[in-house]
Amino acid sequence: MPLPVPGSVLSEGLPDREGASVRETFELFSAVAPKGWRVELIEGEIYVVPPANGEHEEIVSELNGQVRDHDKGVGRYTGVGLVLPGATETVRVIPDLVIAPKGSFDDQQEWHAPDPVLLVAEVTSTSTAGRDRVQKIRAYARAGIPLYLLIDREAGEAVVCSEPSGDDYSHKSIHKLGTQVPLPAPLGFTLDTAAF
């Protein structure tokens, strides 16, 4: 399990919990993570992700706006934690963008079931690209999330994953960034990636 370097921001103030389970360690890291940092638990590994850069956030904002323009009846959520089924234990992720009916997350819970989710989107960063391309595809497919949109900045591609089946999606379409990207149902509109 990747752990912070002693003396780093996350290790300051952490109680000595030798022998703590992965879940307990995840809870500790989540409790002391600085504002804007995300702590995720994927396939038994804890990942601490620093705040995104401006380009990343511009893409998330543009995607958010295009979804709003297409359907004002759906909610567009950033910072929502999802609890997903894992191969051996629960997965906890905070996608860059979650699309679900308005009111889906209007409770006081920190972590939510994926049942109402229509689409999750991830925008790669150098520190997250590998997980976004592999582990998160498995996690979102296992959870039955209808659409996973991966904006892969390093590859210059938008990958649309649909029809979840087991540990993968039955259909994947790859589009160069800067082109029109069709998003199938349940969203059913064309995403313009020219601004990405």
Assembly of the depicted chains: single chain
Helical coverage, percent range: 10-25%
Quickly count the helices: 4
Strand content is 25-35%
Strand order of the largest sheet: 3-6-8-9-10-11
Supply Rg. Answer: 17 Å
Order of helices and strands: HEEHEEEEEEHHEEEEE
The structure class reads: alpha+beta
Structure description:
- With 196 residues, the protein is α+β, with helices and mostly antiparallel strands.
- Helices cover 21% and strands 33% of the residues.
- The chain has helices at 22-32, 54-70, 129-133, 135-142; strands spanning 38-42, 45-49, 74-77, 81-84, 91-93, 97-101, 111-112, 119-123, 147-152, 157-165, 168-176, 180-183, 189-192.
- The strands form 4 sheets. Strands 3-6-8-9-10-11 form a 6-stranded mixed sheet. A 3-stranded mixed sheet has the order 5-4-7, covered by helices on one side.
- It is globular.
- Mean pLDDT is 88; it is low at 1-16.
